[in-house]
Design goal:
273 residues, alpha/beta, Rossmann fold, seven-stranded mixed sheet
Length: 273
């Protein structure tokens, strides 16, 4: 398996929204809740913003905030800048971001920590650029947790376990909830709130998505492509769109109703000490 190439595989080209039919809805709502106490002019940074899907939505909903996005992919940032959305985008290494100490009032990461080679170094760098008392929202899928269906697939069907999310999404870290919480505590963050999503329906949908992508790639002999890009390029029929909207709404409702019950998909609000 070749190393995942983030210049060829770009996330965040779509539009994040609050509509229940959007797969981004629950995450975006959780992020906005984390930012609720910020005043006009507060500086917000999304790390690993890709083509800007989430930070663009936040800027649109909270235009009074000064929004920044950074990513390791120049290709992704070029796509983000085309939107001319009022967000400031910067190229950034995982261990060294181009910002001064204590610069940001808030930070955001969506589906990032599972990708990075050194999560401790990344959190230390985020801590450096945040102000004391700054808020940090983080969404992480914990594929190594006992509540994760991926964990059990890995346990009993090894060749179809984490290899799919590694190949098509670049995942290399398989946290448990406990190891994720410890990671933040060790890097000078206090955990203020924990919520969960995609307890069962969302997990089943995710597994089906990766399995369908794997079949398509093998059949069509596609070069590296990530899960988001492949399905964004698909042209589903009206009936498939209808079913997709129903499923996405069901996943959103599942996540909302059971958000306080543990699942492997973790939404953390932490505060810099």
């Amino acid at each position: 398996m070749t190393e995942f190439d983030y210049e060829k595989s770009i996330w965040g080209r779509g539009t994040a929204g609050l509509d229940w039919r959007s797969p981004t809805s629950f995450r975006l709502r959780q992020a906005l809740m984390a930012l609720a106490g910020l005043k006009a002019g507060a500086k917000v940074l999304e790390i690993g913003c890709g083509a800007g899907q989430f930070i663009r939505a936040i800027k649109k909903i909270r235009p009074e905030l000064d929004c920044y996005g950074c990513d390791i992919s120049q290709h992704a940032l070029d796509a983000a800048k085309q939107a001319d959305d009022g967000v400031i985008y910067n190229l950034s290494a995982q261990k060294e971001m181009p910002y001064a100490n204590n610069f940001f009032d808030a930070a955001l990461i969506f589906d990032v920590l599972e990708h990075v080679a050194d999560p401790n170094a990344m959190l230390a760098e985020i801590n450096r650029v945040m102000k004391t008392g700054g808020v940090f929202y983080c969404f992480v899928p914990c594929e190594g947790d006992v509540l994760s269906l991926w964990h059990w697939i890995k346990k009993f069907i090894r060749e179809k376990g984490h290899e799919l999310t590694k190949q098509y999404a670049g995942h290399i870290n398989y946290f448990s909830r406990a190891s994720l919480f410890d990671l933040f505590r060790k890097n000078n963050f206090n955990i203020a709130r924990v919520r969960y999503s995609e307890h069962l329906l969302g997990q089943i949908l995710g597994i089906m998505t990766f399995a369908a992508l794997d079949r398509a790639v093998r059949k069509k002999k596609l070069v590296q492509i990530n899960n988001e890009t492949y399905f964004a390029q698909a042209k589903p029929s009206p009936i498939i769109k209808f079913i997709k909207n129903i499923v996405n709404t069901a996943v959103y409702l599942e996540s909302t109703i059971f958000s306080r019950l543990p699942s492997p998909n973790v939404h953390l609000l932490v505060v810099k000490k």
